[in-house]
Amino acid sequence: MRYLDFAHRVLQSVLVEFVMILIDLSSSMNDGDWPPSRKAAAAKANVELIRVKAQHYPDDVVGIIGFGTDAELLHAPVCLRTGSDDLCHALRRLPDMGTTNFKAPLELAEACLFGKLASKAVSPGRAISGFLSYLLYDQQGASSSHIAETQSKGDYLRRIIVLTDGDYNKGGSPRNVARRLKDAGVVIDCIGIGGSPGDVEVEKIREVVSCHPDGSMRYCWIGDQQKLIKKFQSLAHHIRPV
Questions:
Q1: What residues make up the domain containing 108?
Q2: Count of CB atoms situated within 10 Å of the CB of 44
Q3: Beta-carbon neighbour count of residue 170 at 10 Å?
Q4: What is the rounded distance in angstroms from the CA atom of residue 120 to the CA atom of residue 110?
Q5: Which is the most buried residue in 20, 44, 155, 186, by most CB within 10 A?
């Protein structure tokens, strides 16, 4: 399935997006070439994504996964109408997570996107209960009945947005889980940052990301903090199938 960027406001009764943010938290994300660090820049860019999404698409659902040696659900998926502040707070407390395993966060994102979280080994209590509270939410107009209605109409798009600064050196190939996700209609974007374009192994990225209508990868490398923020502002807007 192909997708177009959809950069103007969409009526919430027409489309709702469920987005999992995946952030590389390997040790190199503490490098200071993007003062104070690449990790701080990643947090700032994703806070901006949440701000724009909450403003234009308050019924969208967002969760956050950090990955390094393994993957951790840093904030369970919540509706932005009531959960955007908590998501931003989680982004300001990102941990350090060792090496770079890309397979584990994709598997955890799959579990979140398709309601299989209880079967995954994740942080106890807060993650599972948070996900269930999202499913049962019925506050300030962000009700589970609305979400269920959009799903039944087929107007519910699942997305994964990955930010990384390097290659994937632990956990095995993410190829099969990425193929599973894309076959199920999930749109996967990846942003490379820091260092130089050569620091990110593009051939591995090619196996994971979705494609634009012209066949090009939904991947880009960014070497400037302001450009990174602008990119995430753009990613905040809805996309639609063509």
A1: 3-241
A2: 17
A3: 16
A4: 10
A5: 20
